[in-house]
């Protein structure tokens, strides 16, 4: 009977050791998964920062040339507006005089296509 209880006791101890090893293995696996996840997040962040930097560089090249182009167009537009204002101020009075003379100085004439009927 003593040997039987000793055998059962050994089996219980072996089962307990196996259970402990299994729990320890689960903890190590969880720790490794957590560490792998953290490393993946670091890699993802580095990749995202690299791609963002490349995007900003390309964007600055494109937008930089577009902003230069828009500044140039703005300059040309302002120059054209000043030129048109200058022409307006230069010719305004003569055009107004011509218009007023056509409206106010009526010269009654017979039209060239008019035929007198008797």
Provide an overview of this structure.
Helices cover 87% and strands 0% of the residues. It has one helix and no strands. It is rod-shaped. It starts with a helix and ends in a 14-residue tail after the last helix. The model has no long low-confidence stretch (mean pLDDT 89).
- Number of distinct beta strands: 0
- Number of distinct helices: 1
Largest sheet report: none
| Spans where pLDDT lies below 50 across 5 or more residues | none
List the helices and strands in order: H
Distance between termini?
160 Å
Strand content: under 5%
Q: What structural class results from the helix and strand content? A: mainly alpha
Nearest-integer average pLDDT: 89
Radius of gyration: 48 Å
The coarse silhouette is rod-shaped
Helix % is over 70%
GO molecular function, one term: ATP hydrolysis activity
Coiled coil: 8-50
Family: Belongs to the V-ATPase G subunit family.
Protein name: V-type proton ATPase subunit G
């Amino acid at each position: 009977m003593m040997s039987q209880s000793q055998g059962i006791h050994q089996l219980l101890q072996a089962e307990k050791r196996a259970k402990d090893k299994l729990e320890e293995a689960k903890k190590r696996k969880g720790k490794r998964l957590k560490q792998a996840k953290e490393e993946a997040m670091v890699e993802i962040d580095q990749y995202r920062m690299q791609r963002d930097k490349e995007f900003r560089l390309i964007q600055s090249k494109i937008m930089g040339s577009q902003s230069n182009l828009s500044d140039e167009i703005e300059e040309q537009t302002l120059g054209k507006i000043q030129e048109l204002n200058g022409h307006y101020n230069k010719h305004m009075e003569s055009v107004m005089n011509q218009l007023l003379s056509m409206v106010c100085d009526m010269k009654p004439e017979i039209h060239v296509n008019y035929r007198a009927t008797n």
